[in-house]
Amino acid sequence: MTILSVVRDVCATVGVQMPTSVFGGIANNRTMQEMLSLANEMAQRIAYDTRDWVGLRARANLTGDGVAEGFSLPANYKRLMLTGNVWRSTSTLQPLRFISDHDEWIRRRLSGQSDGAGEWIISGGAGGYPLIYIFPVLALGETVAFYYIDRNCVALTGGGYGDSFMADTDTFRLDERLLKLGMIWQWKAQKGSPYAEDMGSYSDALANAMGHDQPAPILIDRRPISHHERVAYPWPLPS
User: Fold this and answer.
1) Predicted pLDDT of residue 236
2) Residue 90 shares a structural domain with residue 139
3) Total-model pTM
4) Between 75 and 223, residue with greater pLDDT
5) 132 and 70 in contact (C-beta within 8 Å)?
6) Quick one: which H or E segment has residue 86?
7) Are 143 and 60 in the same domain?
8) Residues 133 and 145 reside in one and the same domain
């Protein structure tokens, strides 16, 4: 479903004229300006703020040269996964320790103190772009790897991905129905119309999508705990 299709469905629901184009003549169309702004905000809100969506997870691999302590983050980096770690190729039994406080990072560097597996922190770099700093410095050919959330939640018609809609035929990389339902309740809220039921529909759809975003763990036992469960291992639990 394209962004034009989503916006047309939203317009039909909230009672404004359905467009033939979102971007055509948008400079003189206040309603489409508001719809586009809302679509971008809601798409980013769903993509970044609700969960670590499987479809937006990406892996970074950084390779040391024996000198550099700081590394640029990927161009599409939004944030680390909520339960993510940074792993060093030469220490696979324990992830690097995250140092959250910059004063503590400085103190540890000046005192020569460090965790046995290594440490990392994200801080501003040249030009204001954040860098990830690794200590001890990665040796030549040594790598660190971690998963992060891709900031580009829109599939662009012209190819590649972006964080905002640029054309009528661009598509949301996640569930378009979530985008539509989110836009409906937020539009009504912004216009002072009753929106509680619409927000509830969006919340239900969001919870359902989150619950089905990745496989559930398999319970190993002879007896299911409810009629919803299925037997995965028809013998006693291993001791």
Assistant:
1) 62
2) yes
3) 0.84
4) 75
5) yes
6) none
7) yes
8) yes
E strand map for 19-113? 57-63, 70-72, 77-80, 87-88, 97-98
The whole-angstrom separation of Cα 38 and Cα 149 is: 22
Cα separations (Å) of 95 from 119, 140, 154, 202, 219? 9, 19, 32, 37, 28
pLDDT, one tens digit per residue, over 140-176 is 999 999 999 999 999 999 999 999 999 999 999 999 9
DSSP annotation of 220 reads -
Domain, as residue range, for 143: 56-150
Of the three residues 94, 118, 150, the one that is the final residue of a domain is 150
Per-residue pLDDT band for 222 (boundaries 50, 70, 90) equals low
Helices 176-190 and 3-14, axial angle in degrees (round to 10) = 40
The torsion defined by the Cα of 12, 19, 206 and 52, in degrees rounded to 10, comes to 180
